[in-house]
Amino acid sequence: MRPVYDTWHLSYKSVFGALRQNRSCRFSIRLPKDVRPDFNPVMVLFRTGFKERFIPMHVTGEEEDCFVYSCEYTPRYADVHYYYFSYTCDGIRKYIKKHGAHYGTEGEGALFQLTVYKEDYETPDFLKGGIMYQIFPDRFCRSGKLHEDIPYGRVMREDWGGTPYYRPDHNGHVWNNDYFGGDLEGIRSKLDYLHDLGVTCIYLNPIFESHENHRYNTADYMKVDPMLGTNEDFAALCKDAKKLGISVILDGVFSHTGSDSVYFNKNGRYPEPGAYQSWESKYHDWYSFINFPDTYEAWWGIDTLPNVNENNESYTEFICGEEGVLHYWLSLGAAGFRLDVADELPDQFLNNLRKSVKGYDKDKVVIGEVWEDASNKESYGVKRRYLLGDQLDSVMNYPFREAIINYIKGGRPQDFICSVMTILENYPKPSVDVLMNFVSTHDIERAINRLGGENCDDKSKDWMAERWLTQEEYTHGKSLLKAAMALQFFLPGVPSIYYGDEAGLQGYKDPFNRRCYPWGHEDTELLDYVKELARVRKMIPNLKEGRTYFVINEENIDDDRLIGFTREGAEVDYIFFINRSGEYAVLTDIPERLSRFTDFKSCIGEFDGNDLVVAPYGYSVIKAKFVS
Fold first, then answer.
1. Which end of the chain, N or C, is surrounded by fewer C-beta atoms within 10 Å?
2. In whole angstroms, what separates CA 501 from the centre of its chain?
3. How far apart are CA 8 and CA 618, in angstroms?
4. Contacts 24+ apart (CB under 8 A), 471-478
5. Is pLDDT above 90 for 535?
6. Where in the chain is the domain with CATH 2.60.40.1180?
7. Mean of pLDDT over the chain
């Protein structure tokens, strides 16, 4: 007996995943022949805040054990829609709702989601098929160049690779005021290294003048931090990177500034009165004071990070205007922005930001920091519109990261598949193609620690500070990291390497995940492996935009060590198999198992035309033609 409804199969929903506005889609359900509805079934569809629509369904086919009922729907509004099916039998109303990730069954359940995005929504091509590399600027490479006008209050470290300061002072404050001296010139000196690694885009954590080493407490949006260099140094980095086919995107921190800044000036560092000092300051209305001047709204209550009123006309113009922050850095060569805490930026500001960036150049990118499913995210009681075509191009793909890590550590293949397919189903295809896929970032422990070491969630900073993996833990963590990175590189989106992951750099949570890159002490075997992943990624054109579906371990599992999925192409599909175990895995009778394909050919790995061998923690790739 077939399922009543299944969103992953085109015989039930003629377009997989999100729909482009004004594009028609056919929805079909299958009811057993002994089920005789009193009236034709209906599809019940609605958007948040709007009334339900009832779309009649009609018999469109007969199969051995069921009748097929279908309807067509062409969405006019870019929004997240929800739907279910309903019919009556003998006067009793029946419902077909969501059960699990994609099946529709009779009875109570969840609603199906249908994301509808704007008709003209496209995303920049320069990221598609490429590789991103995230750099925490103070810790990547120190050029040794003398920098002038360094602000006071900074501790200059000479012990490159030492443990970052993390203990609070006698007042309980951790000021993040130790600097190892990484700079823009250092990054520029390593462009050949990044090019050899296959990198096509550098994502820089904040570079604007700020008085803590993470630089998320902006002091001056129009100036590179003097420790990193000058605005001219940034322009030179972008120019030289472009010669190697590498773009540079910046971290935009627009929900708050630093209290020690040109704009707030709580510490009196700057000559012009800031919002903290005077009601007459031109920046005063950017902030919300509860009891002037000492009590004000701050990001998560941290008084060194006063919140801004993003929709304040003056602030919006300062950031998004023709002479504003965005256009200025784009004019120096930036390829776009990653937006810090995007869920704290109001819709109108995001709308204005996108208009500004795309008005300068439609091929510049806007990526948001969103930790959950960005298609149905709610923040502060508002249903967000990130990926409908008016705001972001894409997001940081935390759901993939968690799915990859959990699966590689022994999670159920079905859970991994459902997590991945749910994102692919809910997100617009243009967004999927430029998803930022990572296994480590500056906000979470490095993947090698998560995979090979102890769980650090309940551990203190003191425990994490000098905690290094044992040789056995490191070897195990590296092996699992290889399998995880294969998934990261071959699933839809753009793999993002957090600096040092490719060299075996360790680190638990902030600030220990921000240690210095180990120049001269890299794990060269791991580095060569990542270069090989990049080479494979470059040679397979389907990895740029090809759709994905899973071909083994969706349901009937006979070897849960393996996961297999396709990246579709116009003429040929590439089929990837990843082995998460320390043993060789053999998949027999490939043509029989994958009967939807023909003309199998080996691409990477041992494949004799019938049986496939996948090395421990390794991957194999074959190509074949899909039989429609």
1. C
2. 17
3. 28
4. 474/448, 474/504, 474/506, 476/451, 476/452, 477/448, 477/449, 477/451, 477/452, 477/453, 478/448, 478/452, 478/504, 478/523, 478/526
5. yes
6. 546-626
7. 96
**Is 414 in contact with 142 (CB distance < 8 Å)?**
no
Taking the C-alpha atoms of residue 204 and residue 247, their distance in angstroms, rounded to an integer, is 11
- In SS3 terms, 505-549 reads as CCCCCCCHHHCCCCCCCCCHHHHHHHHHHHHHHHHCHHHCCCCCC
Active site residue 458: no
Cα distance between residue 274 and residue 252, in whole Å: 21
pLDDT at 60 exceeding the cut of 60? yes
**Per DSSP, which regions of 455-499 are E strands?**
494-498
pLDDT at 172 over 80: no
Domain with CATH 2.60.40.10 in the chain: 5-117
For the question of residue 340 being annotated catalytic, the response is: yes
Q: How far apart are CA 465 and CA 166, in angstroms?
A: 8
* Residue 553 pLDDT: 72
Residue with tokens 């509805």: 37
CB atoms within 10 A of CB 39: 9
pLDDT tens digits, one per residue of 31-40: 999 999 999 9
Could you give the 3-state DSSP secondary structure of residue 477?
helix
Q: Which entry of 212, 340, 344, 502 is annotated as an active-site residue?
A: 340
Domain 546-626 in CATH 2.60.40.1180: yes
| Residue range 5-117, CATH number | 2.60.40.10
pLDDT computed for residue 226 by the predictor: 98
Choice among 369, 425, 502, 545 that is catalytic = 369
CA distance 214 to 210: 8
Write down the pLDDT at residue 558: 63
